Amino acid sequence: MWKLALRTLRLRKGGFLATFVAVFFGALIVSACGGLMETGIRSETPVQRLAAAPTVVGGQQTLKLPEDDPATLDPEDKHKFENATLPERVRLDAGLADRLRAVPGVTEVVGEVTFPAQAGATSALGHAWDSAVLTPYALKGEAPKPGEVVVDAGLGVAVGTTLPVAAHGTVGQYRVSGIAEAPQAMRDAAVFFAPSDAERLSGHPGRFDTIGVFGGDAAAVSAVVGNAGVVTTGVDRGALEFPEVNKSGEDLIVLAAVSGGLSAMVMVFVVAGTLTLSTQQRQRELALLRAIGTTPRQLRRMVLGEALVVGLLAVAAAVALGPVLGNWLFGRLVDNHVVPDVLRFEQGWLPATVAAGASLLAVVAASFVAGRRAAKVRPTEALAEAAVERRWLTPIRLITAILCFAGGTALAIVTVAVMTGPVAASTAGPAVMLWAFGLAAISPGVTKVTAMLLRWPVQAITGVNGRIALRNTRVGAIRTAGAVTPIMLAVGIATANIYLQTTQEAVSNQAYTEDLRADAVVAGPGGLDPAVVSRVRALPGVESASEYVTSTVFIETPFDSNQDKDGWPALGVSELTGNAAEVPETLGRHVGDTLSLRLGDGTPVDVRVAAVVAQRPGFERLVLPAGLLAPHTTLGLAPQLLVRAADGVGTATLTSRLREATAGSPVQVGDRAALIAAHAKGNEVGAWVNYLLVGMIIAYTVISVVNTLVMATAKRRREFGLQRLSGFTRGQVLRMAGIEGGLIAAIAVLLGSLVAAGSIVPFCLVVRGSVLPSGPAAIYLVVLAIAVVLSLAAILVPAWAATRGRAVDATSIGE
Q1: Which residues neighbour 400 within 8 Å (Cβ) at sequence distance 6 or greater?
Q2: Which of 36, 457, 519, 545 is the most exposed, fewest CB within 10 Å of its CB?
Q3: More confident call, 5 vs 503
């Protein structure tokens, strides 16, 4: 049977090419997503600034959160914890460097601080000159004294030049005492200050970002550091130099898992549909094999053998090209700031193995489904079975549909009854796949029913051609369903995901603006100098001005069962002082209660609940004093000042006065619209990722649609020839085919819209109290237009090719 399978490949090139394409693109996407996941897991980052230090000590960026209330657990029980990543840079006490110098074998210990700086028109990072040995930099000139700087050679500044440098909210004039040259390419330009200047400008005196250790044993260093930090060597040092890689790696893992899993599920249906259609078109051949004595087992082995040969070839090509696609996708993520550019793309053998296994498993499952019906018929019924489509509803299809519809219904109920805010997308999103797979399992029957519902309008518009097209659609329901299913998947997934994203963005912007009273904003990329804040508050025409700080905090006591490893969003404002806090009513606290928090850099602090307020569900946050929150952020200062105009003062007048008052300071002044636009831009990263995922899946389903329709239409050459011999003109045949394409598109659009509604409606009810999503209707119209054009093009082009010759010649060609 294997030898027969290999021989049939040469005679059935069209059908097997279609299977090859379906498997290839599915395996390619899964392999690429596997590479992204491996990159996130490894999170390998080349060391740059710390390359010369064999051992690097950094702050502990992980916080252990108990999964259960410690007060209710038996002290002898083993407590379960989950690790949360602290969002702000965790710094080390400078005294640790002195203790490390006493470790036997240690020859040198160097503390390092890093802070944003603006050297002239160039963004750079500021450091103390004594930490240049960690790279090491070569110096041309002299080391900086207070009031002097050594600049990176890439800045193109000459020694002796006076350079304006903005850092920590202030601008100073510094004499360039030397030029530093790095031994390798660096992501960020460097500006080196005298140690006393660097300590002042870092905003965290007496603290180091990292400590480089030369000599000694890493184990001995770890023993001294203990729980005060983490000790790294080799490639792990890069994670301390670029701490943002840790969070980005986690996000990349989730992104790859979702997109890869979704693609794998779509691939199963696409490959199954392609193989089923290919096998159905060979019913006469398979029937004859059964009639001459081929056993069901042999027939199944032949179908499996054919599918495996094609699948192995497709998987081999996909695995070879998977890293290419993965690297391209990674590049797009870097370009759109989803992941930092210092992260290195890595793809080894494991993603290729997983992609190959998943793809071949899909091929085996699809070939089993495709060959099962042909193998079950009795030889005496074989030829009759080949003549017309018969029973399509099998127990497997029915059970699959029931389970998927039950799962989709359950997720819809959970979305409405349990979820709040944007988190509702975590259940609404998967629901669209369950609804789609449920309909796909019974698509022949659903296609027949939908075609019957469309009968009257189609006949009224298209006449006799429409009646024949409707009859073809109903009689060839399995064939038609093979084309309807991928379009339905594409329409449903695209519509649901895009409108979930647009609705989420709209609700987020609304939540941000509904309590926003500011008329203007003063923003400082390196933080706002308190002196600037004081000048703005004293400015005529300013009614109030509040610092605006964002971070994340974690509640330690009392135990919060609803808190996950993402913690609580925190907002710092000037209206609160001391240790007062405003909390949402959903937290279940009362005025006067005390909360023990861990701030974004891990610092413990107790706050007193001064107010309990109702906040928009899903957007709850803790409001703390800016003076308490800002020092424990990576920047160390408030990055924004929100300003409200006094009565009678217009926005233009206010912003003009603000620019005059802040002239010479490293700040930017914008109006309310600029503030809202900046917030909306922060959502663009998530939107872009979502659109990328949708784009990949749609591209795959588009290929599948073209694949299926071209294969199905090309096999109807004999049918078209008979129609032409019976009196149809070529134009009538093409019009009939076009109407069939329109019917396929209409059925797929209706079903896809139904699938999308099963996800969108529960989500919109939760986040905006309406069944309709936010977003332009043009999105839906574009999706529909693509589906229609795709269906018509994929059926008319091969139909045109199939009707080019003489009708009598077409009827003489075997099936």
Answers
A1: 437, 438, 441
A2: 457
A3: 503
The answer to whether 725 and 807 are in contact (CB under 8 A) is yes
Distance CA 461, CA 453 (A): 14
Identify whether the C-beta of residue 118 lies closer than 8 Å to the C-beta of residue 166. Answer: yes
Q: Which two tokens stand for residue 618?
A: 């899903």
Residue 772 has phi, psi (to 5 degrees) of -100, 140
Identify the three-state secondary structure at position 567: coil
Cβ contacts of 438 within 8 Å, gap of 6 or more? 400, 401, 402, 403, 404, 405, 408
Residue pair 108/55 in contact by the 8 Å Cβ criterion: no
Instruction: Return d(Cα 39, Cα 256) in angstroms, integer.
Output: 10
Indicate the range of 58-67, 70-79, 365-374 predicted with least confidence.
70-79
Work out the pLDDT band at 385, boundaries 50, 70, 90.
very low
Q: What's the rounded Cα separation, in Å, for the pair 228 and 529? A: 31
Question: Would you state the torsion angle of the CA atoms of residues 722, 728, 732, 737, taken in this order, to the nearest 10 degrees?
Answer: -20
Give the residue among 217, 231, 262 at the shortest CA–CA distance from 30. Answer: 262
d(CA 483, CA 737): 13
| Structure confidence by residue, pLDDT tens digits, 89-141 | 999 999 999 999 999 999 999 999 999 999 888 889 999 999 999 999 999 99
Question: Is the pTM above the cut of 0.85?
Answer: no
20-24, 73-77, 211-215: range with lowest mean pLDDT:
73-77
The whole-angstrom separation of Cα 113 and Cα 498 is: 43
What sign for the dihedral angle of Cα 143, 147, 152, 153?
negative
What is the pLDDT averaged over residues 274-296?
A: 72
Between the alpha carbon of residue 739 and those of residues 343, 443, 450, 459, 747, the distances in Å are 51, 20, 15, 10, 12
Q: What is the pLDDT of residue 7?
A: 60
Per DSSP bridges, beta strands 640-645 and 520-523 are: antiparallel
Please give the structure tokens belonging to residue 490. 């594409």
| Identity of the residue numbered 187 | R
Answer whether the bond into residue 773 is a cis peptide, omega within 30°: no
Question: Which CA distances in Å does 337 have to 49, 332, 421, 540?
Answer: 21, 9, 25, 40
